[in-house]
Amino acid sequence: MKSKIIFIHGMFLTAKSWSDWIGYFQSAGYDAEAIAWPLHDSDPAQLRANPPGGLGKLKLADLQGYYRDVLRQEAEPPVVIGHSLGGLIAQRLLADNLVSAAIGICPVAPNRMLAFDWGFLRNSASITNPFAGDDPYEMTPEGFHQNFANTLSEAESKAAFEKYAVHESRQVLRDIMGEDGHIDLKVPHAPLLLIGAEKDEIIPASLVRRNAHAYEDGRSHHEYAEFTGRGHFICGEPGWEEVAAKIENWLAGHLSAVRS
Question: Residues near 184 by Cβ (< 8 Å), separated by ≥ 6?
Fold first, then answer.
């Protein structure tokens, strides 16, 4: 039997963003499900219209503890696939020895790794703005198109915004600069694949590459792959099936090696 796959979404999205991916991997014989962050388990349009109370105070530690509890209930360590901040959570779960393999797609990097890239700096400063306090960051159609879906047409981006986008806690991103954003990159770990997107305006591919190569244990497999012409919305834009196929092929090789 193939390993179970748990998908973790990133900021400004919900588990709904993984719907097509769940179908893809279920067709490939995997038991697959997406588990929403706390305060994100509802229809995106409803969440935009009525942001949940306490959203602005949601912390990175809350998410990490929540997913640790989820994985500890599994009979066997699952595969975890995370996008953006979900990719950082996937790496943290990997460090906690709770997964059989981890994949981060355009992941937020641990250990205060930064990029001197205009898109990265612009987005990070806007979201983490200390003067905004605990007010949630309100995603707009314009901001979604500029930063998330910059490789799509305006009409395509607007449709994706309506279907998937939500407002978000600023605190989860602020917390990556502290202890909750730290991972010991020297210890042995299960197989890890990090994927970058050439046109990403939020997490530049150069930062994802640096993140992948920062793992130091020579006995553990860590790999970097990059897709040209893709933005941060790589999991939802046309051609997402190519990314899913890359992961499926990678899992076929590395999970069999783990079992051996």
Answer: 95
